[in-house]
Specification:
Elements (H helix, E strand, L loop, with lengths): L20 H5 L15 E7 L5 E7 L1 H4 L4 E6 L26 E2 L5 E7 L2 H10 L1 E6 L12 E4 L12 E2 L2 H7 L2 E9 L11 E7 L2 E5 L5 H12 L6 E4 L16 H12 L3 E4 L2 H7 L6 E9 L5 E12 L10 H4 L8 E9 L13 H19 L3 H7 L17 H12 L12 E2 L2 E13 L1 E2 L2 E8 L4 E4 L9 H13 L6 E4 L16 H25 L14 E3 L2 E3 L5 E3 H8 L3 E8 L8 H6 L6 E2 L9 E13 L5 E11 L6 H20 L5 E2 L4 E2 L17 E6 L23 H13 L10 H4 L2
Parallel strand pairs: 1-13, 11-12, 15-16, 21-22, 29-32
Antiparallel strand pairs: 1-5, 2-4, 2-6, 3-5, 7-16, 8-16, 9-14, 10-11, 10-13, 14-15, 17-18, 18-28, 19-27, 20-21, 20-26, 23-24, 24-25, 28-29, 30-31
Helix pairs in contact: 9-17, 12-13, 13-14, 16-17
Bound molecules: dioxothiomolybdenum(VI) ion.
């Protein structure tokens, strides 16, 4: 069905600046909350101050008395709409206003709507709740936290993987480690705040909200409001950072839509930074136990990975990264098990490279420990355990350029100058450490639709309901159309971020470039086919030429032998001013329901570990240098080098930016980020960007990205592996390994802070 296009001669796309770069730097790329809605009213949330229990009484009189207050929707007030559902489209099953039960600290207990933002905020602060409070469970070790196996419990959990006889192999191994690792709670904290603007025209609802899934939200919002999805439109113009936080819809969206219906005016609710910690998703804390056994030559014979993840009381959210860690190396035997721990917390959600970031951190840290135990160079250790096939199902890798990545990154980094002895490299007062780790991310693709219109003046319009979440997908879609239709990129305009456009899958799981470009390629090829047929038809400008060898070059249709016709002349012969084609792309192996599910906002993912023929991953190798002050233990990362292979790179500039951003975030994981939890109250403490640490310019020095050429036409017709989440994986383990190399201290619990390195 889907004919793969021939692999492009040049697999590294031009480093074209983003098509929306000018709009972005001049402030003309609007966030959804910038949309000028006439007569808009303002909504402000009131949130709970306890984490477990119920509301006995809500005192709203003082809030209602604030001049300008139009309405207050509070707990128990939303009986006319359905509860949210937990899954890929809905962030949580907690319907905060459906009853008076409190599931977590910071849960929405009311929405105040007023003429002005100030009035709404004042009123929200005057709301008082009487609670029947119960002692909450905050996290793993809290009394009352409930642990269950992930397998069979969660719709998003794939598998506990197993190969060979782990117990026997581990028992028999000559060299072994058995260690525990952990990663902290983290919040996405996109610069753009979360917001919903809802407006009704008759029974038509339009919602402007930053979003990674306009099609899925349209369907889910219609379900909650009990209206026809055809009457719902979600518009998400430009998104100021998402990272997964704007993937599943939260309960707020339907509440604001209900408020707009009740007050008969558009309502805008911008959530404060502080409130976003409890009303949006986050990356929950994880724990890991890794057991690894090897022979004295460094060949691994046993790999065991157990993971524990915190979630909310009602929802079995889990990332489950052992699907990837269990397939990383040639282990001989594998045994993994993932558990979910329910506590009185808001439901976690996807956060950049959700499974791999914590799980590969644990694996790669263990790999370094094992290399030390074996007295082996850590790069050599990985080389010795490079697999020919994935160890669980025995399938081939569609492509795997990991060792090439190691070679190129090691060379650029100067790994050969590393003295392996711990604490042996010094520069004045600074202890120098060097470490490395592997990055991996599944290469997935999903069904996607696109429409392309080519007009007789050579202008191209691409329409696709994907989302510009900052990755540059508009730019690569424009490049794909420009390449296939042989026009300059400035002739191409791209429309995205609107559920009225042809549906695209959720912009998550690093699938967008592959999925969108595959659909755009298909639509562009349909336009080409129409143009070619007209060109060689009787009365066409290339009449008499064969249809087979036609191509497009420089705005012309070119026949074998070099005869050519301008696009305008082909259009003239057709007596039309434009060709418009709508294409639906479904990946190889799609079910008969694939397109139906795309339109229903439930796209099937293919690739990664999902396909029968092969497993599909992008790989990278990251090398870091750390410097630790011998007196103060201040930790610095002066340089980091990452080499990545991810199939066809549509645009080397946007790809580099994604990988740099990922590695910078990796530095953040290693040294900066953690949401602190008050264990008594199950409450996030550092709920702002003053106390939630992220790196600033002074923390980030030299960041080098090497793009390793790789051709893989098995992954999808565009030959693209996603890389938006790849760079973020492995960095923290590389830093932990470098810290060990500098100091001899193995830090297994992130983040690594000065206090961990004091004697
Ligand atoms: Mo990404 S966490 O899959 O949006």
């Amino acid at each position: 069905m889907n004919e793969a296009a021939p692999a492009p001669k040049e697999n590294m796309g031009a480093p074209l600046p983003r098509v929306d770069a000018r709009l972005k730097v001049t402030g003309q790329a609007p966030y959804p909350a910038d949309f000028a809605a006439a007569n808009v009213a303002y909504g402000v949330l009131a949130t709970s101050t306890i984490a477990r229990g119920s509301i006995r009484a809500l005192h709203l009189d003082r809030a209602r008395a604030v001049p300008g207050v139009l309405d207050i929707i509070s707990a128990g007030d939303v009986g006319s709409i359905d509860k949210p559902k937990f899954g890929n489209t809905g962030a949580s099953s907690i319907g905060p206003l459906h009853d008076t039960k409190i599931f977590h600290d910071g849960q929405i207990i009311a929405l105040v709507v007023a003429d002005t933002f100030e009035a709404a905020e004042e009123a929200a602060m005057l709301i008082r709740a009487d609670y029947a409070e119960e002692t909450p469970s905050a996290s793993f070790d809290s009394k009352g936290a409930e642990t269950e196996a992930a397998a069979g419990k969660s719709p998003m959990f794939k598998e506990d993987v197993k190969a060979g006889d782990f117990d026997a192999a581990f028992e028999a191994a000559a060299v072994k480690i058995d260690q525990k690792y952990s990663t902290p709670t983290q919040h996405h904290n996109p610069i753009e705040l979360f917001s919903t603007t809802a407006m009704w025209q008759g029974d038509q609802l339009t919602v402007h909200e930053p979003c990674q899934n306009v099609t899925g939200w349209k369907v889910e919002l219609a379900r909650q409001l009990k209206i026809d999805p055809a009457n719902v439109r979600i518009i998400s113009s430009y998104v100021g950072g998402a990272f997964g936080s704007k993937g599943p819809m939260t309960a707020r969206t339907a509440i604001v839509a209900l408020a707009a219906r009740r007050v008969g005016r558009p309502v805008r609710c911008v959530v404060s930074r502080m409130q976003s910690f409890g009303t949006q998703t986050y990356r929950a804390e994880t724990r890991h136990r890794i057991r690894m056994g090897a022979d004295r030559n460094g060949k691994i014979s046993a790999f065991g990975h157990e993971g524990w993840e915190v979630t909310s009381r009602p929802d079995p959210y889990v990332v489950g990264g052992t699907s990837a860690t269990g397939r990383m190396y040639d282990y001989g035997s594998v045994l993994t098990h993932v558990s979910i721990v329910h506590a009185d917390r808001n439901t976690p959600g996807y956060m950049r490279s959700p499974p791999e970031t914590p799980y590969v951190y644990a694996l790669e840290n263990a790999m370094d420990e094992m290399a030390v135990a074996l007295g082996m160079d850590p790069v050599e250790f990985r080389r010795v355990n490079e697999p020919k096939k994935e160890p669980i199902g025995g399938r081939p890798f569609s492509s795997r350029s990991l060792l090439k990545c190691y070679d190129q990154a090691a060379e650029a980094f100067g790994w050969s100058r590393r003295d392996a002895a711990v604490g042996s490299m010094r520069d004045g007062d600074w202890l120098v450490g060097m470490g490395c780790a592997t990055a991996i991310y599944p290469s997935s693709v999903a069904p996607c639709a696109a429409r392309i219109r080519l007009t007789d003046d050579g202008q191209v319009r691409v329409q696709c309901g994907s989302h510009e979440i900052g990755t540059g997908v508009r730019t690569v879609a424009a490049q794909m159309a420009a390449e296939r239709l042989a026009v300059d990129i400035d002739k191409v305009s791209v429309e995205m971020g609107d559920s009225a456009l042809p549906p695209a899958p959720v912009s998550g799981g690093s699938i967008s470039t592959a999925s969108v470009c595959s659909a755009v390629l298909k639509a562009a090829d349909a336009v080409r086919a129409k143009l070619f047929a007209a060109a060689v038809a009787e009365g066409g400008p290339l009449s008499g030429s064969g249809n087979e060898k036609l191509d497009m070059q420089d705005g012309k249709v070119v026949a074998a032998g070099g005869k050519s016709a301008a696009i305008a002349d082909v259009f003239k012969s057709m007596q039309v001013g434009a060709i418009e084609e709508y294409a639906e792309f479904a990946p190889k192996g799609s079910t008969g329901q694939a397109l139906k599910k795309l339109y229903a906002g439930q796209p099937e993912f293919h690739g990664g570990e999902e396909d029968k023929d092969s497993v599909k991953y992008a790989f990278g190798a990251e090398f870091v240098e750390v410097r630790i002050n011998s007196y103060t233990r201040e930790i610095r990362v002066p340089r980091i080098v990452g080499a990545f292979a991810a199939g066809r790179i549509m645009n080397t500039r946007t790809a580099r930016s994604q990988l740099m951003g990922g590695m910078i975030w990796g530095i953040s994981h290693a040294l900066h980020e953690a949401t602190e939890i008050d264990q008594r109250h199950a409450r996030y403490v550092n709920r702002d960007l003053q106390d939630y640490l992220v790196p600033v310019n002074a923390d980030i020095k030299k960041v080098d990205v090497i793009l390793v050429p790789e051709v893989d036409m098995e992954v999808n017709p565009a030959g693209v592996k996603g890389l938006g989440e790849l760079g973020n994986v492995g960095t923290a383990a590389a830093i932990a390994s470098a810290v060990y190399h500098a100091t001899g201290k193995r830090i297994r619990d992130l983040p690594i802070r000065i206090e961990n390195l004091l004697v």
